[in-house]
Model the fold of this input.
Amino acid sequence: MRVGRLVSWAVLVALLGVGACGGGGWFREYEYDEETFVNLDGSARIVVSSSLPALRALHGFDVPTDPAAPIDREAIGKLFESAVTRDVYVSRPWRRYGRAYVRVELQTPNIERLSDAAPFRWSRYGLTRRGAEHVYRQRVGAPIAKPSGAGSWTGDELVAFRLHLPSKVLFHNSPTREVERGNIVTWEQPLAARFAGDPVDIEIRLHPQTILYRTLIIFGVALATAVALMVWLVWWMRRKGQRLREAARGEVGRGLPGLSEVEGSPAGRSSAVERGGPKGPPYRDADNATGPRA
Done:
């Protein structure tokens, strides 16, 4: 039984590791995956996970397509550097189906100018405020470079454009019609359709307040309510204790005079004797009163 559990845990860890290293989601594998973590102020973080043959075929980048060839991560990072991108990072490569993959992360202060960078020239971006909504639009056109058959593809490969959104999604036009856990909306396209230049039109309408901001408001209200309740409980307990002490002092003050008056009267002395209370001087009989016996 213990060995079986260990094997089950090992299989689970292995599956999670494969999903994490794949760079394309837990159960979906993408040949080219472009993730955009957009903020309402227009800044964004971009993560591109792609095979090197796909980078060469879609963007015309001079990268090695032989999986056994050495990979210069610094050279790949320079391909993503521009006046509108910063903090470019290239991960260690991994291999799948005989192809090398890398993950490139970068920041941009203005998503609407991201198309000035070479890897994103095929897109046009827009983020505007319309009434009580923020509207994000992106149109992905044909590849700038002439696609080349640089990879040994089977035809089942997918390209994905995934949006990680900061606030509640009010509307989106993704064919999946789903908002995934983590507030993610995905547009998928066959790699062959991307080579053919079929456009991808993305539109999302967002709530003007970020999820973090709304969460902080809810937390603040809950915290203020809890503090107010604690203050009220402390005040109520002190008030109740004060009333009990006043009532006890009143009972003592009323009881002592009555007891003195009752015990000072003849009836009170009789009842005190019956209760075993204070008694008079020791009783002497008549014989003792007349003196010692003869």
Summary: Confidence is low (pLDDT under 50) at residues 11-25. The chain has seven helices and eleven strands.
